[in-house]
């Protein structure tokens, strides 16, 4: 047998078919050419200056809503979509967030719960990257417990009037359309809100130390008047936003491992050439123990992601199973990134290397789409039948 490949020591690539590997290669090449050379600078400046051009380019490679069918979407499998998320996040979690929020949250909400008119109006433009979408669920006082949201919508004749405030909204100020969740007399409902609607403003959130190459904004809704047809007709209640979040979490199960892979590969390259005490630091047992643990966790995580992806493609993925993936893979990814940072020593804290950027990005990934604690409680409930959320 030939020696194992350090980049794929368990031979997991053999478990993907040619089309899956082709999607991976396309996204990997796109990231290497169009984002990787610039992203450290965007991160340092705390902006994504070419987000609109980038969105058009992402549209051209079919990245937006790629796992959705029709309306200009690529109709890819769950595993193909997962591999794309991994490659985007191997570049930067902010890039993967742009793609996830667009495809898995905003487009998915319209695709799953929207009227035919809403789908026709928004999905083709969003798939092409001509319109960016955002997803407003979290509020200043309601994060892990979104069911307690205060934002509300009242009927005024046939119109709706929305009032409230959403916080930490990815893509907010660059979006053309916001999917906003609000309480109504009938229960929580989703609204498709063009962002030029009077009464809606989207101030950016500054001073982030994480996901700096990603736009994060508030959505302030002050007497926003919408026509009757702005409501998503297909769902009433928290099942709406929670179903969308399940989609985006699935992408994170894969994506987080991309950040981990970049850090591990950076540390391996670094340790091979960095010498201390007369030899490469890769030759010290303590460094090798770190590499062994990181590789074991990265490739176990990949097997878990692939297992969940195959179940999703078979229509058998339960949301609680996604919690296993989100909890484990983000937790292990952040650990891999932090350990890689130690191997780079002082260089580990420099933006000259991608490692610290990924470490701080994953702090957001640990928190959004359900914190680690929430996923722990979901799994706890699934195992015991007892709810420990309150
Ligand atoms: P809280 O809910 O206040 O939680 C604080 C801590 O308490 C956490 O550790 C939490 O796990 C813990 N906790 C809470 N309840 C319990 C409990 N019952 N038992 C044990 N521990 C508990 N939201 C959107 O709607 N759209 C977006 O596009 C979006 N993008 C984001 C982008 C970034 C960069 C970030 C950082 C966040 C984004 N979010 C978005 C918001 C994100 O989903 C929330 O931050 C997340 O749900 C957690 O809510 P919170 O920050 O209010 O924390």
Question: How does this model look, in words?
Answer:
Residues 237-383 form the Acyl-CoA dehydrogenase/oxidase C-terminal domain. The chain is of the alpha+beta class and 390 residues long. 51% of the residues lie in helices and 14% in strands. The chain has helices spanning 18-34, 36-45, 51-60, 78-91, 93-113, 116-127, 239-273, 285-313, 319-343, 355-367, 372-384, and strands spanning 133-136, 152-156, 159-170, 177-184, 187-194, 200-201, 216-226, 275-276, 279-280. The strands form three sheets. Strands 2-3-7-6 form a four-stranded antiparallel β-sheet, with helices on one face. The protein has a three-stranded mixed β-sheet with strand order 1-4-5, covered by helices on one side. A two-stranded antiparallel sheet has the order 8-9. Helix 7 packs antiparallel against helix 8 (285-313), helix 7 runs antiparallel to helix 10 (355-367) and helix 8 (285-313) runs antiparallel to helix 9 (319-343). The radius of gyration is 21 Å and the shape is globular. The model has no long low-confidence stretch (mean pLDDT 98). It binds flavin-adenine dinucleotide.
């Amino acid at each position: 047998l030939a020696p194992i490949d350090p980049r794929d020591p368990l031979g997991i690539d053999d478990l993907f078919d040619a089309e899956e590997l082709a999607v991976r290669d396309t996204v990997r090449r796109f990231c290497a050419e169009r984002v990787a050379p610039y992203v450290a600078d965007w991160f340092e400046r705390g902006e994504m200056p070419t987000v609109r051009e980038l969105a058009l380019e992402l549209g051209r490679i079919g990245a937006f809503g790629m796992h959705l069918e029709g309306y200009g979407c690529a109709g890819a499998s769950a595993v193909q979509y997962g591999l794309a998320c991994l490659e985007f996040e191997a570049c930067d979690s902010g890039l993967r967030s742009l793609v996830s929020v667009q495809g898995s949250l905003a487009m998915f909400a319209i695709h799953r719960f929207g009227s035919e008119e809403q789908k026709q109006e928004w999905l083709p433009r969003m798939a092409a990257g001509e319109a960016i979408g955002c997803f407003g669920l979290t509020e200043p006082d309601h994060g892990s417990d979104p069911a307690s949201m205060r934002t509300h919508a009242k009927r005024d004749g046939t119109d709706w009037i929305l009032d409230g405030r959403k916080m930490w909204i990815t893509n907010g100020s660059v979006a053309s359309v916001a999917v906003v969740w609000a309480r109504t007399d009938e229960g929580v409902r989703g609204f498709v809100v063009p962002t030029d609607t009077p009464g809606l403003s989207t101030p950016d959130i500054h001073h982030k130390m994480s996901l700096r190459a990603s736009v994060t904004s508030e959505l302030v809704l002050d007497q926003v008047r919408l026509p009757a047809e702005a409501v998503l007709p297909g769902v009433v209640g928290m099942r709406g936003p929670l179903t969308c979040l399940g989609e985006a979490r699935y992408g994170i199960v894969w994506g987080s491992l991309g950040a981990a892979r970049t850090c591990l590969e950076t540390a391996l390259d670094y340790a091979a050439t960095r010498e201390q005490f007369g030899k490469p630091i890769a030759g010290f047992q303590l460094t090798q123990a770190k590499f062994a643990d990181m590789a074991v966790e990265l490739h176990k995580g990949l097997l878990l992601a692939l297992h969940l992806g195959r179940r999703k493609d078979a229509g058998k993925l339960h949301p609680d199973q996604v919690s296993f993936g989100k909890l484990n893979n983000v937790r292990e990814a952040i650990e891999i990134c932090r350990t890689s940072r130690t191997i780079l020593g002082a260089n580990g804290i420099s933006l000259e290397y991608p490692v610290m950027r990924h470490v701080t990005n994953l702090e957001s990934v640990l928190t959004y789409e359900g914190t680690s604690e929430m996923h722990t409680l979901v799994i706890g409930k699934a195992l015991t039948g007892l709810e420990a959320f309150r």
